[in-house]
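Continuing the series of single-chain predictions for the mutant panel. This is the parent chain; the variants come on the following pages.
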Amino acid sequence: MPATPPNRPLLSLAAATLAAVAATAAPASAAGGATGLSAAVSPNSVAPGGRIGLTLGGCGSRTGTASSSAFGDVRLGSSNSAYTLSGSTTVFTNASAGTYTVTFECGGPGGDRVTASLQVTTGAARGGTGGSIDTVSRGEIAVGGALTVGALATGIWLLRRRTRTT
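Parent structure:
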């Protein structure tokens, strides 16, 4: 039986989809310049009441903090490396829409600091999405509908093809 060539349009579509998802899910990050610290907030855009992850890299201590007027003070800890600290928190449900500064501090008071940004969007946090999605655009609805119709059409075609050969 001869080998069938790969379906290049399907592979191209899959690659483009993965690239689009990766581009929209990139966390906000900042580098600390001379201190060697790096900080990340993920996702960097969230609705009030949404959950976020906080990461501080390049810290020589096993503890640190992250603070912002969007969520208060959060203690960061190390799971396996003294150089990477992490934690998570929930954005205040009454946080106003806008950009908030998140200040990361390595070690105790007076330690090295670095900042990152957090964008709080309008709307309530949605269950199951971590508050990272506020609305669904018409384009997303169209793509979802097209994929559903394509899957349904393929299923019908396969069923009809199977019944003709038996």
